[in-house]
Specification:
By secondary structure, the chain is of the alpha/beta class. The protein has 3 domains: 4-92, no CATH class; 116-365, 3-Layer(aba) Sandwich (Aspartate Aminotransferase, domain 2), CATH 3.40.640.10; 373-493, Aspartate Aminotransferase, domain 1. Helix content is 44%, strand content 17%. The chain is built from 21 helices and 18 strands. The strands form 5 sheets. It has a 7-stranded mixed beta sheet with strand order 4-12-11-10-9-5-8, with helices on both faces. Strands 16-17-14-13-18 form a 5-stranded mixed beta sheet. Helix 8 (151-157) packs parallel to helix 16 (344-359) and helix 9 (169-181) crosses helix 10 (202-209). It is globular, with a radius of gyration of 30 Å. The N and C termini lie far apart (82 Å).
């Protein structure tokens, strides 16, 4: 009689025999199908991916999780070549992918924040494919400074102020804290100890810099007298932090930059203002009244202002420090300055962006400002044209309603949380009342389209859809409508309305 142990041993032998029957990697690589894959994706990668596939089948055979039929089917040369080819294409596909931003969030952090101007993008391409005088002074025939490419433009934008550019605003704050308050206290309001993207918190940056946090005031109210009471022999600087993407409203209050400037001057300590949004022009006429231009902050008494390059400035990721020359020089001499320095591509992109401001053409040339300046009527006319395109492109029997409604766009990137720009939205309502199927089809298509869902409706804001993308967006929407599994019914369009 066969025992349970002997039956198990027999099964193990069967599994082992199945694993041994798998084709050899070397023989497969010599086949026509795999030679073609090697020519397309590289022989080393194809060999590695094939070993992964064979290894997975071997483990499944030995463990008994795959039947003999499943193993033999999956181990066919054609099946293996198809899977290896798909794995190679997936691994080597362009990433990050270009997407269509129909969310209406202009400096969308998750989508790369600001779009570069045409001039900035062209300079990046030129700089990436050749040599350039990054740190070489052509006039003297000697080593130069990479900062020299940005300083003349920043001097024009901030007369009488020195400047330094680093890789992002968090790096600029870290550098300022290290150079000016390492081993000393940085006085900060409790209401400004914010958390920025990626779970980074102001107290954490302070700790890494070597500065000691001295909290003053309360979460909702911090008075000038709170700062005055905290300043002493151990004070290195006063730090005022941009509240990023939130505001405290109601029974709240904070000390202004002019008030803190007076306190700092009296105490003989620098006032450093982290103004992450980095707007260089007054955006109040556009309804963005809670952001103050950097130059005004300096005029109000800030000794140093740090800000981002890829938010309201509309350039690449960067951090810029402007202010007193003696303080900027201390930042420049700190060893961390080299760790935080900009590379050549970012310098070229930032320079071209700053040049648009110097020429006074920023609203025409910088996409972020151009988008923010768009009026709701102009966006509405474009949305109407798109709606008609979709109606023509949608297949018969699509069950959905398209309409144009009033809505709001946002600046994004932690800028102006209270600022809203009036817009006109293209609203897609499914007959089934579920926008999720359409949103998923848009998001997973090629190119991906990002939109918003509210109250079971799909909302698309053309403020952030770039020129030349309307036709593609219409095609993608028509395809998404077709994927919405709803009862057959005619596509309906409705007159514009205000909500």
């Amino acid at each position: 009689m066969q025992t349970r142990g002997s039956r198990k041993t027999s099964k193990d032998r069967e599994n082992a025999a199945l694993a041994r029957s798998l084709p050899a990697v070397g023989r497969l690589l010599g086949s026509r199908a795999f030679r073609r894959l090697a020519a397309e994706h590289g022989p080393a990668l194809v060999a590695d991916l094939l070993r992964d596939e064979i290894g997975a089948l071997r483990r499944g055979a030995l463990a008994g999780t795959l039947s003999g039929r499943e193993v033999r089917e999956a181990a066919r040369e054609g099946a293996l070549a198809a899977r290896v080819g798909e794995a190679a294409r997936r691994l080597l596909a362009p990433s990050p992918r270009a997407v269509i931003n129909a969310t209406g969030v202009v400096a969308h952090t998750n989508l790369g924040r600001s779009v570069l101007s045409a001039a900035a993008a062209a300079r990046v391409a030129e700089a990436a494919t050749g040599y350039l005088d990054l740190e070489y002074d052509l006039a003297r025939g000697a080593r130069g400074s990479r900062h020299a490419h940005l300083e003349p433009l920043l001097e024009r934008l901030f007369p009488g102020q020195a400047s330094l550019a680093v890789h992002n605003n968090a790096g600029a704050i870290l550098l300022a804290l290290r150079a000016l308050a390492r081993g000393r206290e940085a006085v900060v309001s409790r209401g400004e100890l914010v958390e920025i993207g990626g779970s980074f918190r102001v107290p954490d940056i302070l700790a890494v810099s070597g500065a000691r946090l001295r909290e003053v005031g309360t979460t909702n109210r911090t008075r000038v007298s709170d700062y005055e009471a905290a300043i002493g022999p151990r004070t290195g600087l006063i730090l005022k932090v941009h509240q990023s993407n939130f505001r405290i409203v109601g029974f709240a209050g904070e000390a202004s930059v002019p008030e803190l400037g007076a306190v700092a001057r009296k105490a003989g300590v620098p006032l450093v203002v982290d103004w992450g949004s980095g707007d260089l022009v007054d955006l109040a006429p556009l309804g963005i009244a809670d952001e103050i231009p950097v130059r005004r902050l300096l005029d109000q008494g800030a000794d140093l202002v740090t800000f981002s390059g890829d938010k309201l400035l509309g350039g690449p990721q960067a951090g810029v420090v402007v202010g007193r020359a003696d303080l900027v020089e201390r930042l420049r001499r700190d060893p961390m300055a080299r760790v935080c320095r900009l590379d050549r591509l970012l310098i070229c992109a930032l320079r071209e962006t700053l040049a648009s401001y110097v020429r006074g053409r920023h609203f025409e040339e910088v996409p972020t400002l151009r988008m923010l300046a768009l009026g709701a009527d102009e966006i509405g006319r474009r949305a109407e044209r798109l709606r008609r395109r979709i109606a023509r492109a949608a297949p018969p029997g699509v069950a959905a309603r398209l309409r144009i409604e009033d809505g709001v766009s946002r600046t994004g990137g932690g800028s102006s949380p209270l600022g809203e720009r009036p817009t006109r939205l293209l609203v897609v309502e499914s007959a089934a009342g579920d926008a999720g199927t359409m949103e998923r089809a848009l998001r997973l298509g090629d190119p991906p389209v990002l939109a918003r869902i509210r109250e079971g409706r799909l909302l698309l804001d053309l403020r952030t859809v770039l020129k030349g993308q309307d036709e593609t967006l219409a095609e993608r929407l028509a395809a998404a409508l077709a994927s919405d599994q709803t009862p057959k019914r005619k596509l309906m369009t409705s007159p514009s309305r205000t909500t």
